[in-house]
């Protein structure tokens, strides 16, 4: 009764059927060409976690007193009056939003005046000046003004497009007029992000588990990524930056939508940020159009020496070896998800020039990358033989090796005797990766510290290099060395997240996004969940943030919304509260905790390898354009066997498209004991064309950490629906 049990499990999570809702008939942004994505791919009761509104035009949720910050009324309320000069009301949208505001009001009294509009993401900066975004730090962002000429007027004011405010939650309206008063009749916002989507809730992926906090964080990451997908004509002004006020009318790149670093700012393409943002986009929102355009603009602006800009236009920051490599890694990610070989063909020679450029910085005698392009994610220093740069280069080379296979399959001339003199790039990149791995372990690892040093001689054990070493498999998953590194990372932990040794006093959810992967790769699932709950959970419940609707760029160990104050952020209100680089939990929860991820282009191959931690149930999935829907669900049962189940254990349901093939790696119930495993009703040993491998964990338990042996189903299964029971014998 495979299909009935399959239905039962998904029903357990409350799967409901999709009904098309006529109220969802909406528009895309302005002149954007609409995406063909219009409907949620996996409707269900998890839809309640989607923060995106069902309409592109939204109203505030409540009205606050500026003086006290307290709620005065829900919006619209009955009497929204700005009575005298300096009177103000704060309109709270209840979550992160962004776009173009329109206000309507009537004027009484005498004389002319103005209504000011000031914006902020965080509640600490409500007031007559907007939070900081212009990047020059010379004059404040200030406010916009709707000037009126006298009494009796019914004014409708729409802010200019160039003044689009990409990220805010609070709008303060205040009166500047000696002898007039104003009655606010209406406040509305036309959302500017996710411009090509007619239905902002049309998610192509979902996640649902028994921990409400994790569900909210998964959807906060997803919504953040939506706020970061913006019209390509709304980049922040740069060269020079605005020295007061703000301007968001710069060219960001081609197409109708593009993914930038943050909703409020910088509003520029940053390839390093995409290292986290893009995998999370793939499993949740599913908007790869924005990703393609972001990568393309970096290729379009490649320098003649082969280097890529660190950021796209208008910013066009230069001089970063790490962000250079992130563009190359991003190319792999995008191809993995889409198999867009036209894109690869168009940019392949540029990619190879970029590889030549960066690999020329690997010099003997040590065989390490010597970083000379020193800009980076904001760590204190990046030059010379930096450990984290070796990790990123290792990933660049291993992904480059795969890209070379894909390029040769898709459009390079097939190898012939005459071309045998040209090197096989896959072989070349893999041998370079292996030499680099050896050199990095030899020169950057500290056996006494059980961790990588910041560079070959530094006394610091940084969060980034150690996290990336595992996330990018320079250290093999589940290895003894990996477990040591995972444990050494715990030294940085505070109750509200890990303090980065390489950026003292600060907490970086960007680097912590890789640390989540590091603990999972080490086999310590519970550590990853603890990390998500401490850092992202802290922001989720913060009274002054975006109500948990987004993920924040960074903050201080003392719990204040400040970041990089000693690294160029001259104003603490500059911090972005909707930054895709902090969306790591979204992909980690789907790909590692639920355990479903694709390993070959378009999901032709995939892996199911759950890492359950303290969760008892999870399900989720994602839609792959061109292949179909991928879903997985698991539920543990402890002394409460469901009908048809027996004993303690867990049950898995998989549903993947026909024509795909998946590997399966299952945690045992108790170390050293092979459980009874049934696949589609048959014991493993009864299945002739499947062998399995018991992978013993040799390090034992560390404290209360789960550290389970694994059973690999060698060769895996064909796509389709599968049910697995793992039971105590
Ligand atoms: C604000 O106050 C009004 C009435 O005083 C109440 O109906 C509403 O629920 C409150 N809103 C919030 C977000 O607390
Ligand atoms: C509306 O509020 C203003 C300012 O708070 C006050 O002066 C006025 O009397 C109120 N009007 C009504 C009808 O409550
Ligand atoms: C009017 O209000 C503004 C804003 O609060 C203030 O800066 C200004 O000094 C006030 N003007 C007068 C004449 O009180
Ligand atoms: C929230 O902001 C208010 C006003 O700035 C401040 O007094 C309060 O301490 C902040 N709350 C937290 C938890 O930081
Ligand atoms: C509109 O009002 C603001 C604030 O009082 C003022 O600075 C600005 O000069 C006014 N603009 C016009 C065109 O009158
Ligand atoms: C302004 O709008 C109000 C409400 O719609 C209306 O009653 C009033 O007559 C209008 N005043 C003017 C001057 O148009
Ligand atoms: C849409 O309008 C913007 C601003 O006017 C312009 O820069 C952009 O090129 C237009 N996009 C398309 C797809 O026509
Ligand atoms: C790295 O490159 C810089 C700049 O070219 C050079 O000064 C330095 O000696 C190099 N370091 C190593 C270890 O090769
Ligand atoms: C290069 O070698 C790899 C394996 O090392 C192989 O898969 C690939 O087909 C080769 N490429 C060419 C163009 O021969
Ligand atoms: C690096 O390679 C050398 C030569 O093959 C080998 O002796 C050494 O053990 C390797 N070191 C590491 C850390 O892998
Ligand atoms: C990717 O696309 C190319 C054609 O562009 C095709 O030859 C190849 O089979 C595709 N690969 C997958 C895994 O779908
Ligand atoms: C789906 O893939 C096709 C090419 O296979 C592409 O033309 C289309 O734009 C993709 N759809 C979306 C929504 O990305």
Automatic annotation (TrEMBL):
A GO term, aspect molecular function: hydrolase activity, acting on glycosyl bonds
One Pfam family here: Bac_rhamnosid6H
Keywords, alphabetical: Glycosidase, Hydrolase, Signal
Secretion signal span: 1-25
Record GO biological process: carbohydrate metabolic process
Alpha-L-rhamnosidase six-hairpin glycosidase domain mapped to chain residues: 258-476
Domain of life: Eukaryota
Protein name according to UniProt: Six-hairpin glycosidase-like protein
The species this protein was found in: Apodospora peruviana
